[in-house]
Amino acid sequence: MIISPRLKAVLQVLTTLVVVVVYVPLLLVMVNSFNVDRTFGWPPRGLTFHWWNVAFHSSGARHALLVSLEVASLATLISLVLGTCGALALRRTRFFGRNTVSLLIILPIALPGIVTGIALNNAFRTMLGLQLGFLTVVVAHATFCIVTVFNNVQARVQRIGTSLEQASADLGAGPLRTFALVTFPMLRSALLAGGLLSFGLSFDEIVVTTFTAGSQTQTLPIWIFQNLFRPNQAPVVNVVAAVLVLVSAVPIYLAQRLSGDTVSGVTATP
Questions:
Q1: In whole angstroms, what is the distance from residue 42 CA to residue 270 CA?
Q2: CA-to-CA distance for 261 and 237, rounded, in angstroms?
Q3: Helix ranges (DSSP H) in the chain
Q4: Where are the domains of the chain?
Q5: How far apart are CA 105 and CA 109, in angstroms?
Q6: Do 31 and 51 contact (CB within 8 A), yes or no?
Q7: Contact, 31 vs 44, CB < 8 A?
Q8: Phi, psi of 131 (to 5 degrees)
Q9: Which residues contact 212 (CB under 8 A, 6 or more apart)?
Q10: For residues 196 and 190, what is the distance between their CA atoms, to the nearest angstrom?
Q11: 47 in helix, strand or coil?
């Protein structure tokens, strides 16, 4: 496709504007986490690590961070198991309603978070009679984290085809042995990418968490929201937000790099 110089210039300007709108506020959060001014006067009169030290010794922030890490890890583990099983089942078998099942798996991540949160809140409290807490948050996060694993595995399975698995079966290997020695090694980078994306999505989720956490469970995004407008906590909130940006960006970056990897030594069947 040939792009005219004028159209290319327009696209470059629009891309620059989008990058500025998205990343300048994030950069402002990072800078303010070192700002000596408690009211975030601009430009900063000086820079300090004082607020980082205060945030590090904040028991509330550290507890919320630990809860977020635990929730994200468990939700990612559940997503890896269920997402992989779902992707393999839908790609390897043909049955009535197959496309409908695929749509139902993908739907949670397409729905507005507030809709998902309200629906899960009603299901946990009204239908199942459960008390909202840590477990309900993990299950709620897993419902949309499954989608990232499902999509990654489904795309990889479509690329690698079935020729190697059929060859393994012809040589006498059973389904479990074939999966362990043939299928899993080819899916490894896709699973890692899907797991990293799931972890990033779960770690910074706030809308669904608000409706499913209850009053005793506090993740890091919830802690930030609750302390955002407290004058004495504002500098600490900026530090925690900066950490949240960094922790969320790393797995997403790694997942993007892994998603672009090719399957070494494997050629997809036509």
A1: 59
A2: 37
A3: 5-32, 50-56, 59-92, 98-110, 113-122, 134-160, 163-170, 175-178, 184-203, 207-212, 220-227, 234-259
A4: 65-259
A5: 9
A6: no
A7: yes
A8: -85, 130
A9: 117, 120, 121, 124, 132, 136, 137, 139, 140
A10: 10
A11: strand
The amino acid at residue 205 is E
- Over 71-84, what HEC string results? HHHHHHHHHHHHHH
Beta bridge partners of 80: none
- Which residue, 114, 101, 109, is CA-closest to 75? 109
Could you identify the residue written with the tokens 């001014």? 37
Beta bridge partners of 47: 35
Chain segment 187-209, per-residue pLDDT in tens: 888 888 888 889 988 988 899 99
CB 184 within 8 A of CB 246: no
Q: Are 141 and 222 in contact (CB under 8 A)?
A: no
Scan for tokens 């949309």, then name that residue.
144
Bridge partners (DSSP) listed for residue 35: 47
Dist CA 167 CA 170 (whole Å): 5
pTM of the model: 0.79
CATH (one of 1.10.3370.10, 3.40.30.10, 2.60.40.10, 1.10.3720.10) for 65-259: 1.10.3720.10
pLDDT digits (tens, 9 = 90+) for 119-178: 999 999 988 888 999 999 999 999 999 999 998 888 888 887 777 777 887 788 887 888
Angstrom CA distances, 127 to 27, 122, 158, stand at 44, 7, 38
222 and 67 Cβ atoms separated by less than 8 Å: no
Among 141, 4, 154, 126, residue whose Cα is nearest residue 67: 141
